Amino acid sequence: MPEYYQTRALVKKTKDAKFGEGTIKRGVTGPDQIEVDIKFCGICHTDVHLANDEISMLLPAVYPIVPGHEMAGIVTKVGENVKNFKVGDRVGMGCIVEACLKCSQCKFGDEQLCQTGYTHTYSAPIQYGQLATDTGVTFGGYSEKISIHEHFAVKIPDSYPMEAAGPIFCSGITMFSPLKRCGATAGGQRVGIIGIGGLGQMGIRLAKAMNCEVTAISTSPNKEAKAREIGADHFVVSTDPDAMKKAAKSLDIILDTAAVDHQAIDYFPLLDANGQLVLIGVTIEPHSIPAGALMFNRQSLSGSLIGSMLETQEVIDFCAKHQIIPDTKLVTGDQVEDVYQALRSKNDSIIRYVLDIEKTFK
Fold first, then answer.
1. Same-fold call for 4-170+307-360 versus 173-303
2. Residue 339: pLDDT above 90?
C-alpha cells in the first residue's frame, strides 16, 4: 500500500465553493523525488479558469482542487537516487509534474510535447507514477509541501528573489521558449509582441534583454507608455490602418499573446520575408490563413505552449542574469477570493499576485 503524508492546503471542494484551509495527502518522498517546503506560489489566470471549471475542453476541473503551478520553495528531503539537488536548495516547479520520459519528444528534451501527454501540476490524473496523492489526481502549490520527481524541478539562483520566481515558471517560460526556437536568443532580431498583458509584458522584457529590436502591438493606444517603460522600441496600434501600413515588413518574429478572438492573418503584413508568427494566446474562433499569404514571402505560422524543463532552467537563469523581475504583490489565503475577482475583471495588470505560503498557514 502506498504511504502518504498530510499537508495543509487551500482547497476548493466544489465548483461553487469558496477556498478554505484543509489537508491533502501526498505520497511520501520516493527514491527519485525531492520534498519541498513551498514558500511562495504565484496565482495565474489559468488558476481562476480551472478552479471554476471554465476550460473543461482543455483540462476539466477535478474537485476537491488545489491550484497553483508557479511554485518556489526549499528542498527539505531528497530520495536516494536524486543527483541534482540537496537539502537546502532553492527550487522552482511549474506546469509539468510528470511525463513519460521515454518517447522521442521526451528524450529530445521536450517534455511539454510528450507523445502520451504530460501531467499538469494540478487537477490532472496521475499517469506515470512519478508522484502520488491519495486521490490519484494532482494537487498544486497552494499548499505547504510537495514531493516531486527531481526531473521536474529547477534551481532558483541565489541572487533571484524567491517571491518573484513563480511567474517565471509560467509566463516567463511561455515567452522564452518560442523566442529561443525562433532564434531571438542570438540577438539582432526584430520582434513584435501582440498583446501587452502579463505574457506580452514578459515577452517585451525578455526580447529586449536578448538584444532584439522590440515592437509592442496593441489595440489600445494607452498601453504605449507602459510598453516603452519596460523595453519596447516601437509601438503600433493595430486598429490604426496608417500605423499598420507604416510598420509593414518591419518584423522577423511575432509572438501573438492575444486571448480574444482575432485573425492572425491581419498581422502577417508586418512580417518581412521568412518571418515567423507564433500563436500563444488561446482563442475560440479558428484562424483562417490563405496559403498564398504565407507562400509568397516564405512566412510561417506555428503555436507554442509553455516549454521544456531545460528551457525552464535557462529562463530563470536568464532572468537572474538580466534582473528581469516581475512586479509582485504578496497575498495570503484569506485574500485569494478577492485576487480571483481582480484577475477576472482585468487581464492586463503588470502586477503578479503571489501567495505567501508561510503566512497563509502560520
1. no
2. yes
How many other C-beta atoms are found inside a 10 Å radius of the C-beta of residue 158?
9
What are the pLDDT digits (tens) for 259-312? 888 999 999 999 999 999 999 988 778 899 888 889 989 999 999 999 999 999
The pLDDT value recorded for residue 278 is 97
Q: Which of 127, 129, 103 is nearest to 115 (CA)?
A: 103
Q: What angle do CA 99, 283, 316 make, to 5 degrees?
A: 45
- The per-residue pLDDT for range 82-132, each reduced to its tens digit, is 999 999 999 999 999 999 999 999 999 999 999 999 999 999 999 999 999
CA distances for 247 relative to 142, 240, 280, angstroms: 44, 11, 22
Residue extents of the structural domains in the chain = 4-170+307-360, 173-303
Q: What is the pTM of this model?
A: 0.94
- Tell the CATH topology of 4-170+307-360: Quinone Oxidoreductase; Chain A, domain 1 (3.90.180)
pLDDT bracket for residue 197 (50, 70, 90): confident
pLDDT band at 349 (very low <50, low <70, confident <90, very high): low
C-alpha 30, offset from chain centre: 27
C-alpha grid cell, residue 295: 507562400
Nearest to 323 by CA among 182, 208, 178: 208
Distance in angstroms (rounded) separating the CA atoms of residues 281 and 283: 6
Q: Where are the beta strands (DSSP E) in 150-186?
A: 154-155
Q: Are 251 and 234 in contact (CB under 8 A)?
A: no
Q: Which of 195, 193, 219 is CA-nearest to residue 206?
A: 193
Determine the Cα–Cα distance for residues 232 and 213; give it in Å rounded to an integer: 8
pLDDT of residue 98: 98
Task: Give the other-Cβ count within 10 Å of 151's Cβ.
Answer: 17
State how far the Cα of 171 lies from the Cα of 203, in Å rounded to an integer.
Answer: 8
* pLDDT for the residue numbered 347: 59
Specify the DSSP class assigned to residue 269: G
Q: Which fold has domain 173-303?
A: Rossmann fold (3.40.50)
